[in-house]
Amino acid sequence: MSIKIASSATAMSTLGGFIIVFGFFAFNLLSHGSLSETNDGSVLGLIAVNCILASSGASLTALMYNRYSDKHTHKWSLLSAINGSLVGMVSISAGASTVYPYGAFLVGLVAGVVYSLAAKLVERNRVDDPLNAIAVHLGGGTWGIVSVPFLDSDHGLFYKANILSMWLIGWNLCGLLVIIIWTLIWAALIFGIMSALNCLRVTSAVERQGLDVVQHGEKAYPYEMTGRSRSASMATVGDNRGQTDDVQQPIAESNDTAYATVQEEDDRSLKEPVSMSQISEADPVSAV
Description:
This protein folds into two domains: 187 residues, Ammonium transporter fold (Orthogonal Bundle); 78 residues, no CATH class. It is built from eleven helices and two strands; from the N terminus they run H-H-H-H-H-H-H-H-H-E-E-H-H. The protein is 60% helix and 3% strand. The C terminus is likely disordered. The chain is mostly helical. It has a two-stranded antiparallel ribbon with strand order 1-2.
């Protein structure tokens, strides 16, 4: 069962998203690799415009998809708009200098839908991806690579249906396959070693206490300032001594989603630091 965890710092997420979007301008502009040659100014200007249009289009469709596809909330989601803008930047990176502005906007519109569908697929398969990085980078990046052979202003299939445009499709698909294989090999190697060394996941006791408290001795999120405690934002059902996983079940409360209060013994465990002996004895949380 998927566990819905309420966001704890939407303002910081917004700031972080803005910083990443701004960084993509530098990434895509500098990827041109030239500033002094003839026509560099027009190419750089095209890249900047395409980045804005693709980011805006993806943010729009991601926002609309979340608003009208969720039958339970029907709300405008700021976080969906932020991730939409990011996936737009990711998707246009492959063809930022080679597509027309309206083509960049089209790339962004489709990227927002791709992101939304990929995020649903990841969640349905119980993959632990709290940042939706798979949907943003794998989904948006895949669509971006595939879109270039169709929307390239010089040799795109939509403009010049010839043998070269067909070759472009083949080469881009080949490049996409190489990227996926290269990523899978290194991801399996790195995470496999971490899993073998038992340092990939923390224990359930540490998860409930929070790494901010266990590792640093400080609370990262001042819940007292908002009038809500950590225990009021999630429900933990089951005895940690008899189960390896904590099951959290959301319950409806007024107009928003709230979570049941943790049992008294769990509430006390959140206030009292977890000793290292308790951490070592607790069962590790199995990877989702």
